[in-house]
Fold this protein.
Amino acid sequence: MSARVSPDGSTATAGDGATPLLSAEGLRVVFPGRRGAPPARAVDGVDLDVGAGEIVALVGESGCGKTTLARSLLGLVRPTGGTVRFAGAPLAYTGKALKAYRKRAQLVLQDPSGSLNPRHTVYDAVAEGLRIHGYAGDERAAVAEALSRAGLRPPERFFLRYPHELSGGQRQRVVIAGALVLEPELIVADEPVASLDASVRGEILALLLRLRDELGLSALVVTHDLGLAWNIADRVAVMYLGRIVETGPVESVLTNPRHPYTQALLSVLPESEGEPVVLTGEPPDPARIPSGCRFHVRCQVLASGAADAVADRCRTEDLPVLGGGGRSAAACHWARQG
């Protein structure tokens, strides 16, 4: 069992409180290297829980492993190591088990245009999941209810439309309706508003919140935008180079960030006070993860000399995996000394 780190740096075991709806423990996804290169550790030891009726934001730069982690949680990428559990039961990777699981956990992608077949009507796009899973009820009524829940009313007005006849926001609502029609318990939304105009983004976020309140739906929202996390999430997990480096209730993390990486991400938000932190370089290659703290080569606190007391540890001593539950914690030698 992986070590869990509490806010004071002590460790505890998982299992406190109710069983999470979705849980990952020690999750690893390693891709083979090309032409003799070392394997890439895209997800390198992650514990992450999503409770019933909870919205968790998974935040980080492009290339940090967020999407690979999300896809592995849905069984779309088989982990190299670790365990995924849904409602307490380990995820099985047989075709039958995965088909049953994907009825309960649905993916919503960032590009609604790419998610919808341009030759299919809205009705067929939403009904596709029902047909795949052999739905025996009233298909027309189920499609109408899903469209209505997604905010497309009256739903019959959209049945025979094609994606090119819809706005970007309407297309994203169709994608969400296609997930809702199977009555899932969890949705994983990968950058759900990244391709939308600012005027529409708030509507889609409000929709996700309403679905949580009305249906008890859980959600893992994958995003690079901490502002989005602030508006929608109950809890946030900040990811860097394959690991969760800070986690906790959204207000705690975003008003009092402890990890220098989280501080840097927050500093560039328009409403942030003070000077923005410009991180040097790109995140390291996941095939060549630095020793010690994986952020130390870009860390603005270490570079400024403020972390000289722990500088050697930052460069050489690895940090334990953060717990996946609700406790606030940061994988940072400098934060833990405070």
